[in-house]
Amino acid sequence: MMDRDQAIEFLKKTGDLVKADGWCVSLGGSRSVRTRFANNGIRQSESGADEVLRVAAYDGKRSGETSTNDLSDSGAAAAVRTALDLMKAGAEDPEYVGPPPAAEVPAVEAAFESVEKFSADDGAAMAGAAIKAFRGAGVTGAGAVEAETSSKAMLSNLGFAAFHKGTLISFSASARSEKGGAGWAGRASNQAETVKAGALAATAAEKAVSSGAPKPLVPGDYTVVLEPQATAELLAFVLFMLDARSADEGRSFFSKKKGGNRAGEKIFAPGLTVNSDAQSVVFLGRPFDDEGVVQAKTPWIDKGVLSNLYYTRFWAKKSGRKPTARPENVLMKGGGALLEDIVKATDRGILVTRFWYTNITDPRTLSVTGVTRDGTFFISGGKLSNAVANMRFNVSIPEVLSQIDMMSGPQRVPAMGGTIACPSVRVKEFRFTSVSEAI
């Protein structure tokens, strides 16, 4: 991948070829190593690298865009010609905003050597530590390790210029016992040394052994303790809905009945605070989005109040607002308790490791359905008494998040194709509607 100076120089050279009122060019690079394991053995190891040039040309209210991974002089010139041809052939865009304007983009050092130099041998070693833990516990396990270094450079004729390089490693492991028990554990980080594959696999294995021969539970309303992965899977739907346009147009839970949106209203539990911060040590990330909007530190939910919705450049212009980058680098603030403390403080309830096949049933109420998976346990007298059969749930996520009364510290976990930093939480009332045959 090109470094900052190389990338910006390449983009300047490409931008000079675009003969139009405006242009924006970007260069995205990636290098990844993936190792997959199953049935207590390594099954796949792969690596790859790529760089992609995107060229957008603007004239009047028309635009044309194309991409290529041919970064030669002739490849870049061909991409420019294609973008110009598409621009000239296209109709005027009623939502035209043009190239991104100049902006002050903070530098975020988010690339770490332990991931940049991560090799197939490193992936095999991490998978091997997990497999050793599985075999030692007498369970069968599967999972994946993925380490990626990515970069993004963007330049426009209006003076927007930015570059970022970051690293990310994620690990997840599932285990199955002979008695039909299941367990899961996972973690994500900017640094490879903070992801302890053997310990995580041991956690998944312990849950698989403990959850064998689960007992069915009568469906109904229960207090639940959600581990970070389960919390993240619900919060991800809230983040997806934080779009000002869908709210203003009446298509969202965050829409007001008589028009407009609910920003400023207290909707969630008083202890719930959710921020985006590309400079957070918990979640270092890219400080600008694909529209050229700076990823400033943004409070989405502050002590239960819906503080902000995100505005695309078009909707911001239409609404007379400043554009806001989409929620990324998301951190849900936690509390001072440990997961063990939360369980100990719960007289009767259910511990949920994670959810599976969760889907929205009604965007207006932000209601979802899904099933528990990979370790569901009954809590009695502050202790895990026995495993319970997985259950289907139907809940309104805002109602769930309004009933949080206890939290642990946040952990960064894989969620919805990305990662979110979330705590374990206790929810006073959570509705389970039926027993599931899933394991």
Care to give the gist of this entry?
The protein has 439 residues and is α+β, with helices and mostly antiparallel strands. 23% of the residues lie in helices and 38% in strands.
* Radius of gyration using CA atoms only: 24 Å
Write down the overall geometry: globular
Structurally, the number of domains stands at 2
SSE string, helix = H, strand = E? HEEEHHHEEEHEHHEEEHEHEEEEHEEEE
Helix content bin = 10-25%
Query: What is the terminal-to-terminal distance?
Result: 43 Å
Strand content range: 35-45%
Number of helices: 10
Number of strands: 19
For the biggest β-sheet, the strand order reads: 3-2-1-4-5-6
Query: What is the SS-derived class?
Result: alpha+beta
Mean pLDDT: 95
Main sheet makeup: 6 strands, antiparallel
Taking pLDDT < 50 over at least 5 consecutive residues as the criterion, the unreliable ranges are: none
Description:
The chain has helices spanning 4-15, 73-89, 113-116, 120-137, 197-210, 228-240, 244-248, 313-319, 339-344, 397-401, and strands spanning 22-38, 41-59, 62-68, 140-156, 161-176, 182-189, 220-226, 274-276, 298-302, 305-306, 330-332, 348-362, 367-380, 383-387, 391-396, 404-407, 411-415, 418-422, 425-435. The chain is α+β, with helices and mostly antiparallel strands. It has two domains: 4-207, PmbA/TldD fold (2-Layer Sandwich); 214-439, no CATH class. A hairpin with a 5-residue loop joins strand 5 and strand 6. The radius of gyration is 24 Å and the shape is globular. 47% of the residues are buried. The model has no long low-confidence stretch (mean pLDDT 95).
